[in-house]
Structure formats: C-alpha cells, structure tokens
C-alpha cells in the first residue's frame, strides 16, 4: 500500500502519528477529537492569548454532520445541546405569518459547542458540561494558546511548524509533526503560504448579529418565535431568529436567548460600511466587529432602520440587543484541501469560508474532521477523502441559500415566495458522494 504522508492509504495504520493543528476553534477541536480517538497524538496551537476562546454569544444551527459528529465522539454525559425548532415561518412587514412549513432544526450556541468539545478534547472543566473519563486507547492531547503559527517547512518525515507568542513576538519556536492540520479559519495563514493570491472577497453585505435573553422579550413576540425558525425578507434585507441555549448552555425555558442574524447591504467603500465597521473607540475593523465594540451612534442608526423596515417583532429583538456584533460576509474557497503531498491539510473555514446559511460552517468543520479521520483510519482512500471534502465545500458554496443570498451590490433580495418554495438543504451523511 502506498505511503507518502505517513498514512497508509486504504488500510488502518498502526503507526501512532503526531498531528499539529493550527486553530483551536470548532474545526480544530473536532479534528483533534476525531484523531485522538484513533489513538494519535495531537497538539493544538491557538493564537488567542488566553486559554479560552471568547464566545461571540451567538447561535449555530447544528446540521446533520454536526449531530453525527457528536453522536460519534461526544463522551460527555451531557448529550442534549439544542433548542429544537419544528417549523420555519415567514413574516410580512406587519408581522403576520404569511407562510410556514414543517422543518425540524437543532439550534445551539457556539459557546456550548466549544465547551463541550474542549471537555472531550483536553478535559476542560466548565459549568457547561461534565468531563468524560480518560480513555487509555486515546492519543495524547495538548492545547496551547497564545501560539500564532507563521510558517511550515517540509522535513524528511513530516513538517516543522514555526510559531511565536505575545511574550516576545521576535522569538520563534518550532514543533515537528507528521501532518499539520490548518483549521485557522477563513483568513487562514497556512492557506496563504501556499496560495498567496487567494483572498477572501467581501460580498457587499454584512450580518448584524446579537442575542437577547428571552426574559427581555415581550410575551407576544416570544410566543411567536419560540420553537420556530422565523424569517423576513425585503429588498436588501434578510433577517432570521431562533432560540438558543442560555448562559452556560442552559436549555431551561425562560433562561434561553433569542438569537438574530440580520443581513443587510453595505456596499464596499461606502460611508455606511465604514461607519458600521468603526468601533466605539474609533478603530476600523476590516471584517468582524466583536460584541461590545459597536459604536453607539452607528447602532442607534441601525435600530432606527430596523424600526422602519422590519416587522415589529424583529425590530423589537434587534433593538433589545445590548452587545450586537457585525460580520462582513465574505467568500473564499481553496482549490485543494492538501499541500506538500498531504502533510498539510485544510479543514473547515480555512478550506472554504462561504456566505453564511443554515447549518453551513459548523457542519463543514464537523464533516471535514470526520471524513479526514476516516481516511487516516484507512476506511476510505485518499481520493475518496478528497472528493468528499472538496465536494462538500463546493456543494455548500453553490447551495440554494448561498446563491439566493448572492444578489448583493444590486441589493440582497430574496422573495418570500422563493424562500417558501425553496427545498431544504438535504442532510449530508458520510455515505454521500460528490463529483470533484
Ligand atoms: C471566538 C469565535 C466565536 C465564534 N462564534 C460563532 C458564533 O457564535 N456563531 C457562528 O455561527 N460561528 C461562530 N464562529 C465561527 C465558527 O466557529 C466557524 O464558522 C465554523 O465553526 C468553522 O470553524 P473553524 O474552526 O474552521 O474556523 P474558526 O472558527 O474561524 O477558527 C479559526 C481559529 O484559528 C485561530 N487562528 C487563526 N490564525 C491562526 C494562526 N496563525 N495561528 C494559530 N491560530 C490561528 C483563530 O484564532 C480561531 O480560533 C466563531 C469563531 C470564533 C473563533
């Protein structure tokens, strides 16, 4: 059996390998958990200067691959991480339901998912969940924060990875690995080393996001939104809400959060775009403005627009958010998921960061991690791994919602009729195949 990158293609390898994973968010953690379960040793290098990533307090929709990942690998006693939603509904400007369809979704939060994954990866204790017992068959795990990776060089047996810490940015450190996994997000530094001309491109619209404790929402609005995935569309606007777990991942009714994602056009280079991306201290952010940093005057303007343009229930939720944040929506997709003959592998948003839509990014991270683990375990061939991973990324990039959210500079416009008739994204399972 051919062996190039240390992985015996098509058959289970008995060699214990060392994987260095760049990025300790959901993609890096998912890959670390899957590989340690196979008995391999892993080291996560995360640039964040503190041991825990700070959540942006927002929701994620746990799609098929994310749920399948948890079924396979979550060893915590806590299994339930989602607030269920059983209908999609569409409102008109007056706030009346104009269409609804039965559709089951699992709404979770980024911070609960992160803490659950940390408990499974390196046994982090937190109020979110219990920590599973050690399993002697698992590989070792190291989670190293304050470690920004800058380069990777091929060695005869693998790769050498270089990083620095904030203690002295001029001092660099190296670590050797059989394989480097780049799970360093849509602006991936590792991808840029191999594909320097591939850039994220701004699509012309932003997501204004936030959460509101359900106890701060009027009872009429809350009863409309509870257990529902609710949408409103108008020229240049798409907004959606759903309920997510509350502080420390609680699912208790009354303590959960109403999550909103409000997509709206901000043409590139326009004064409005500059204004919303300039924080309360006057600093301009290129793509993401974190919670608590939005300028009060810019947000006041958005609240006024929300009151004018949104159904009253959506306007109420947007106006009640105290720590909104802004994400400029971008596109990027790598033409390949591996470099240096498979010694460098892209996972999750580093491989393809696309326009947000239901179940996309977290599902991709979980899917990539599972399929890569299947390849490392010898259950699928290298070609199958590649076709599945690249196929899934391209599938998500061109899926109906992504395309519908594409009419940007001319106006983000998705009609209620189109949305209502739009087929649900099919669940993608391990057995699905894609044309590469
Ligand atoms: C703090 C945080 C909060 C988030 N909150 C939400 C949310 O509420 N809802 C939602 O839908 N999505 C959220 N996301 C995005 C979501 O995690 C991803 O879209 C998806 O899960 C894919 O994850 P990923 O690990 O591929 O990429 P990302 O989540 O983007 O993670 C990339 C990681 O790599 C690290 N990194 C980047 N460059 C380097 C480097 N050179 N060296 C070392 N480390 C590096 C980053 O600090 C980051 O932790 C959040 C991401 C982060 C980082």
Automatic annotation (TrEMBL):
Reading the lineage from the top rank, the first entry is Eukaryota
Domain named 2,6-dihydroxypyridine 3-monooxygenase substrate binding: residues? 202-331
What organism does the record attribute this protein to?
Cercophora newfieldiana
Task: Write out the coiled-coil annotation as residue ranges.
Answer: none
Q: What is this protein called?
A: 2,6-dihydroxypyridine 3-monooxygenase substrate binding domain-containing protein
